[in-house]
Task: inverse folding
């Protein structure tokens, strides 16, 4: 019965379109028997492009690649279906980001493209719509920047774009569908193809309106994916503004949404240039905020100021600290795959240095580590009876989920309640109050029961020297004290600042009764 409820709470939020395309995706076999030498690819001329953002170095020559901190060297031919490091690694291999990394030689790049063309009909993961979308953009950027027109490359590109135009990821929606739209737009300009353009326009008009919230946040509420999608949006603006072809209102929509996304990203970025690693976010995957702002400047785009409202995220800045607060929903109900059970989480920087941080995301592979990183215990919030506020399971599933049921705020405080523990008869209320030198966090558990197991967690950056003296925590630049009677235990945990890399840090577990007050004094 419990398993049925989990599945029901997972699927009942899906959109009708998602369900239809999920069934279609599973029942209809993909037809890849395409002769790429006779696709009718029209002659194209390389696009004119302003300087974009250089990709991270992932190709090291001699068929050696590093993705997600896992290096693989292929002794003979590249195995484009290579799966030993997981599907995400295989996806990265097929994205072809390395074509646009600094210093790659043109002969090496052409050899890599040719290798994929030779393998094209045998590729599996690499011919799914998402990697097709990213590979298409990277090929077009490389071929255009280097003024290369190659009939065979264009035939393979055309075959992939024909498939993508007929198979956008409506079964997934979210960032996947938006990536399909961005890529189809760039492919349309490259081939001057009206079918691709109409498909792209249909997706982008609907999805940019749906997925970009009023405060400029991407609605999946992952700052990393926000950076990735903003990067892709800037590439589209680059293509559209430098290569006049269509004259309609799409370009104005792209520019407006880019300004909103730039404003939100600037508002949540810490002074050291890093982003809050909330939900599925990690460093080293997306272009940095600084790189994106500079790219936008080259495109003569302006960022719009963000009020940080609809996303539920807040950033409090003083001369001594930066406090990032999550008082929002977990994300869109019909696609919460990148969400964590982290309601009322927070991150604290003092004097530009990370102090209280996120555990991070080290893997997408199904298993105990993935479940742990998405759990409430891995975030700086309250856990009741050792349960998650939102039922995160598998790699990208959420069953029953927490909802914000009230929120009030002014210039010096935010107070909110969520119902993630209503099933066990409890409501969690958290209030943050701040001044120049002090942050006070008040937790109240509203319940008729007095026997709940109540714990709160603080995860410290691995670089922090954390000490427990009595019931007072000391860390660089601050002291943290708690209500009398609170049990304070200093423990170890493993933080992830990048995929597949873990580093030991200090964790504080707090055991309390109904009410907990945490005072952070900036010294």
Result:
């Amino acid at each position: 019965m419990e398993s049925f409820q989990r599945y029901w709470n997972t699927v009942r939020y899906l959109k009708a379109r998602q369900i239809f395309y999920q069934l279609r995706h599973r029942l209809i076999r993909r037809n890849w028997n395409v002769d790429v030498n006779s696709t009718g690819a029209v002659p194209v001329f390389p696009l004119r492009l302003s300087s974009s953002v250089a990709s991270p170095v992932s190709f090291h020559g001699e068929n050696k690649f590093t993705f997600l901190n896992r290096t693989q060297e292929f002794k003979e031919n590249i195995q484009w279906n290579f799966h030993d490091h997981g599907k995400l690694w295989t996806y990265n291999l097929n994205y072809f980001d390395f074509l646009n990394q600094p210093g790659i030689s043109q002969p090496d790049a052409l050899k890599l493209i040719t290798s994929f063309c030779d393998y094209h009909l045998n590729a599996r993961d690499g011919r799914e719509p998402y990697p097709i979308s990213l590979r298409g953009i990277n090929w077009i950027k490389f071929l255009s920047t280097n003024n290369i027109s190659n009939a065979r490359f264009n035939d393979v590109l055309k075959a992939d774009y024909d498939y993508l135009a007929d198979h956008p990821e409506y079964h997934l929606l979210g960032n996947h569908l938006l990536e399909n739209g961005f890529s189809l737009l760039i492919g349309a300009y490259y081939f001057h193809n009206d079918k691709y353009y109409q498909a792209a326009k249909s997706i982008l008009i609907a999805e940019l309106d749906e997925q970009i919230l009023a405060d400029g946040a991407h609605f999946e509420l992952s700052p990393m994916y926000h950076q990735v999608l903003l990067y892709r949006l800037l590439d589209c603006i680059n293509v559209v503004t430098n290569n006049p072809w269509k004259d309609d209102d799409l370009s104005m929509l792209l520019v407006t949404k880019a300004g909103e996304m730039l404003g939100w990203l600037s508002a949540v970025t810490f002074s050291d240039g890093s982003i809050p690693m909330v939900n599925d976010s990690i460093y080293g995957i997306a272009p940095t905020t600084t790189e994106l702002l500079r790219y936008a400047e080259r495109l003569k785009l302006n960022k719009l100021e963000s009020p940080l409202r609809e996303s539920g995220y807040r950033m409090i800045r003083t001369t001594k600290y930066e406090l990032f607060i999550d008082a929002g929903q977990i994300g869109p109900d019909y696609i919460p795959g990148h969400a964590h059970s982290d309601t009322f989480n927070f991150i604290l920087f003092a004097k530009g240095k990370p102090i209280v941080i996120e555990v991070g995301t080290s893997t997408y592979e199904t298993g105990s580590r993935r479940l742990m990183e998405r759990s409430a215990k891995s975030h700086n919030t309250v856990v009741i009876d050792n349960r998650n506020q939102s039922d995160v399971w598998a790699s990208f599933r959420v069953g029953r989920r927490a909802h914000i049921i009230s929120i009030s705020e002014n210039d010096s405080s935010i107070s909110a309640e969520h119902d993630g523990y209503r099933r066990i008869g409890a409501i969690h209320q958290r209030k943050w109050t701040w001044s120049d030198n002090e942050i006070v966090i008040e937790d109240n558990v509203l319940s008729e029961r007095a026997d709940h197991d109540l714990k709160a967690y603080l995860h410290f950056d691995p670089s922090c020297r954390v000490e427990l003296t009595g019931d007072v925590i000391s860390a660089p630049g601050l002291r943290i004290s708690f209500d009398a009677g609170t049990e304070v235990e200093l423990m170890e945990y493993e933080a992830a600042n990048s995929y597949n890399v873990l580093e030991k840090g200090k964790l504080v577990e707090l055991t309390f009764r109904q009410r907990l007050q945490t005072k952070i004094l900036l010294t």
User: Anything to note?
Assistant: The chain has a mean pLDDT of 95. The chain is about 35% helix and 20% strand.
